[in-house]
Amino acid sequence: MNTSRDRARELDARDPLRAFRQQFLFPADETGEPLIYLCGNSLGLEPRRTREIVDEELDRWARLGVEGHFEGAAPWFSYHEVLAEPVARIVGATADEVVVMNSLTTNLHLLMVSFYRPTPQRHRIAIEAGAFPSDRYAVASQARFHGYDPDEAVVELAPRDGEVTLRTEDVCDWLERHGEDVALLLFGGVNYYSGQAHDMERITAAAHEAGGTVGFDLAHAAGNLRLRLHDWDVDFAAWCTYKYLNSGPGGVGGAFVHERFADDPELPRFAGWWGNAPDTRFEMPERFAAQRGAAGWQLSNAPILAMAAHRAAVEIFDRAGMDAVREKSLALTEYLLGLLDEIDSDRLEVITPSDPAARGSQLSIRVAHGGRELFAALRDDGVIGDFREPDVIRIAAAPLYNGFEDVWRFWNVLRENELRR
Ligand SMILES: *Cc1c(COP(=O)(O)O)cnc(C)c1O
After folding, report:
1. What's the gap in Å between 69 CA and the centre of ligand 1?
2. Collapsing DSSP states into helix, strand and coil, what is residue 412?
3. 103 lines ligand 1 (CB under 6 A)
4. Which of 16, 80, 244, 312 is the most exposed place for a label (fewest CB within 10 A)?
5. Where in the sequence is the domain holding 347, given as residue range(s)?
6. Ligand 1 pocket, 134 CB below 6 A?
7. 154 strand-pairing partners
């Protein structure tokens, strides 16, 4: 393998998404040198356009006051509608199937109100072992809310002994054998810890076959993988927008509800005025009449400043296209894996699956000993990644703003650290 810096520069020169890098703001060290930012799986970088588009809304507020709700090209009253099409393209859905609202964990709860409908015979929730804590708390509290003991109702599907990631066939087998009492399967699209991308299509089919509903937490998948939520027949999904979607800290969340449920008034849900059909919303009807599709799950009027930041980010995805983003992501991770192979170390091991279809932009590097110290040393040398207890360094090259030279710089710092030991 050619491990020279020039090789990385060559790859960058040939990258069709290269120009997008200029549209983002990079944190820099005291000398002004851009940091090696490989943390888009945790907090994506700020697009240059974000400030401008947020300023436009501040300006409209100053000029129009309350009339901003109905005036201009994107009035606040229907601001979420402007986002529906481009967001639908990112997650592989129709515009009716997505809505931008609230935040991730809130949306998971709201959707579980509708899609976790336990009965004594079928009340269990299947999740992946090692799911993100917020998701575990959310499902446990939903089980408890319905009167079940979470220790019994929540089942964690674990990898085989000695393996780090779940095999799809084991998930499907398990559903076939034990799925009769599973009301809901809730998985991450990409596991936040291992970086494993699940085969959402096969898992959805197996869970449906077993008679359950299926939801995905796409925190680490939206803006990362090529998703086809509609075609895969997923029942519901939720995601945050501050990771790969670059929409700012605590940014507004997203939700997907399959078309099959678009006009189902019987589906229980927690309602609020913003989910009411827009033509009667301001008549303040006595009875709630849900708007068609995912938008019918909205509760409150939209947080416009956060929505504006999301809009700036989504416009960039629309110009680049998810296919190109995914293609470059695959090339970046493959490049990094090749470089890592060239480091002679007795303690580093990539635990993310080697099958390209089973990973996104993140590689999780297990450090057998001294992981914390290594991570601190990398930070001192300008690398921004993150460390997850007990022993994993997560590195993600985000295709819209990271290039091959970023990956090379990270690798070089890591290599020098290992050589010095
Ligand atoms: C980032 C992340 C969250 C964070 O939830 P918020 O409600 O946005 O704070 C939840 N679940 C997963 C899997 C995540 O990766």
Report:
1. 30
2. helix
3. yes
4. 16
5. 5-34+321-419
6. yes
7. 125
